[in-house]
């Protein structure tokens, strides 16, 4: 069963990566071009470093990179789906898949985005603090996912409570955990003098690309799971019918 979920996740992730790459190409690349032009303009007259890959090559490689990234993420998603299959009750594979995708998006993307929103190239980047900022971002991702895992465990412990009470308690736990993480981890760096419209266009396009990735992974994985269950159900019905006719 794990191997089936793994193959299903890789397929869903590959398709999701390509569609997310298409979204990024349509909405993110124009903003990135503007940011690169702004960075080059600020360095006009100074030392110029030639890029290993030009913007044309970078755009062409976007789909390959997102496809590989999506397949890798889908592989992890498939393993997690196999783990939670017998531990999370759901009306269908579709509901379970979409719920897991939403939880991972919230922990690995949305929570870090609210604390450390991405900046365009050359904006708010201090090479001396790069390692510290990267470590803080990765810590936010890991701890946010860990908080969601404990929220799920808490929800299981509260199964005897009324639904509204359980939802309120789990929601409060998530909000308090996020507030504590935001207070403990260092603040994000300033975006400097970059135009606010450019910065937020880049941030929203980045968030949108990740949203497309996780929505498509959840949808495709869920559809494949529903079709597999339908085939298994038809197989059981056919066996029962054959047994009854003998």
TrEMBL record:
Superkingdom assignment: Bacteria
One Pfam match: CbtA
Keywords: Membrane, Transmembrane, Transmembrane helix
Listed transmembrane segments: 60-82, 94-114, 134-155, 167-185, 205-224
UniProt keyword Membrane present: yes
InterPro entries to which the protein is assigned, alphabetical: CbtA_put
Protein name: Predicted cobalt transporter CbtA
Source organism of the structure: uncultured Rubrobacteraceae bacterium
Taxonomic lineage of the native organism: Bacteria, Bacillati, Actinomycetota, Rubrobacteria, Rubrobacterales
């Amino acid at each position: 069963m794990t191997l089936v979920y793994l193959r299903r996740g890789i397929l869903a992730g590959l398709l999701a990566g390509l569609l997310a790459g298409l979204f990024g190409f349509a909405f993110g690349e124009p903003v990135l071009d503007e940011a690169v032009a702004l960075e080059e303009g600020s360095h006009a007259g100074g030392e110029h470093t030639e890029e290993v890959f030009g913007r044309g090559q970078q755009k062409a490689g976007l789909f390959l990179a997102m496809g590989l990234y999506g397949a890798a993420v889908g592989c992890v998603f498939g393993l997690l789906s196999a783990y939670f299959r017998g531990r999370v009750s759901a009306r269908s594979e579709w509901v379970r898949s979409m719920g897991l995708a939403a939880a991972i998006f919230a922990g690995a993307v949305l929570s870090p985005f609210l604390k450390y929103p991405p900046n365009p190239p050359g904006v708010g980047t201090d090479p001396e603090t790069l390692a510290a900022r990267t470590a803080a971002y990765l810590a936010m991702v890991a701890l946010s996912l860990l908080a969601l895992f404990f929220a799920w465990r808490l929800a299981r412990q509260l199964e005897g409570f009324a639904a509204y009470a359980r939802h309120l308690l789990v929601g409060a736990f998530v909000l308090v955990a996020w507030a504590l993480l935001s207070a403990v981890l260092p603040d994000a760096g300033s975006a400097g003098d970059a135009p606010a419209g450019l910065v937020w266009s880049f941030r929203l396009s980045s968030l949108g690309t990740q949203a497309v990735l996780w929505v498509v992974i959840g949808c495709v994985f869920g559809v494949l799971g529903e079709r597999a269950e339908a085939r298994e159900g038809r197989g059981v019905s056919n066996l029962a019918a054959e047994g009854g006719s003998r």
